[in-house]
Design brief:
It is a single chain. The protein is an alpha/beta fold and 216 residues long. It has one domain: TIM Barrel (Alpha-Beta Barrel), CATH 3.20.20.140. The protein is 41% helix and 14% strand. The chain has a six-stranded parallel sheet with strand order 2-4-5-6-7-8. The structure holds fe (ii) ion. Fe (ii) ion binds next to loops. Fe (ii) ion (FE2) binds next to loops.
Length: 216
């Protein structure tokens, strides 16, 4: 499956990938996670060189929120490769003040840059929009999934986010070759069609800056 996914990504014009396996603090300690991730990465590197793929990789994690994450001293270990960016997955529930304060602590106490994973998936849980609005005011990067561009409701959300000037990144969030497939080419086409190429260029530029650990 990894071989097929790598080939598909390359075919879609992707030449840089950040691998972001899920990290759940309640289920696993960081050292075990990092060791397993490293083993999988080494096998992936072998495959990539066998296939002669000219691609660059970084190791990251999709870190699921847990109470106290803002003060967790292991958090820097989960940043993306050699960057100061962390991919944070928020709770699929109503966001609360406790959650907000944790996010602020990650930013201001730990001084880690946050990329909020698939932001489009959380809006529906925010019956009370107060914390949502406060989070949206923070200087964080908002990642959207290519898949969200294929469904009108989430596409409407994505468009508004981009047009309102948020710092948006596009990612596939691909997991496999069946239900969550590499679909960067289709996602990019859709974004270009429904908005315009300028926005895509802006997102690409932003992606390059994150990759090189520059502030955006
Ligand atoms: Fe996720």
């Amino acid at each position: 499956m990894t071989r097929d996914m790598l080939l598909a990504e390359r075919e879609h014009g992707v030449d840089k990938i950040v691998f972001t396996p899920h990290f759940y603090a309640q289920q696993e300690n960081v050292q075990t996670f990092i060791r397993k991730r490293q083993e999988a990465y080494e096998r992936t590197l072998e495959l990539s060189s066998e296939l002669g793929l000219d691609m660059d990789f970084k190791l990251g994690a999709e870190v699921y929120y847990f109470p106290g994450i803002g003060r967790a001293d292991m958090l820097p270990l989960l940043r993306m490769g050699d960057t100061n960016y962390l991919l944070l997955e928020m709770p699929f529930a109503q966001w609360t003040e406790e959650i907000y304060l944790d996010v602020v602590d990650i930013l201001h106490k730990q001084k880690i840059d946050i990329i909020l994973a698939h932001i489009e998936r959380f809006y529906q849980f925010q019956k009370d929009k107060y914390i949502w609005k406060e989070i949206m005011k923070l200087p964080i990067v908002m990642q959207i999934n290519t898949g969200s561009l294929f469904e009108w409701r989430t596409r409407r959300f994505d468009k508004k986010l981009i047009l309102d000037g948020y710092k948006v990144l596009l990612g596939t969030d691909c997991h496999n070759m069946t239900s969550r497939v590499p679909n960067m080419r289709e996602g990019r086409k859709m974004l270009e069609k429904k908005l315009c190429a300028d926005f895509l260029n802006e997102i690409d530029y932003r992606g390059e800056r994150v990759w090189s650990n520059e502030k955006i």
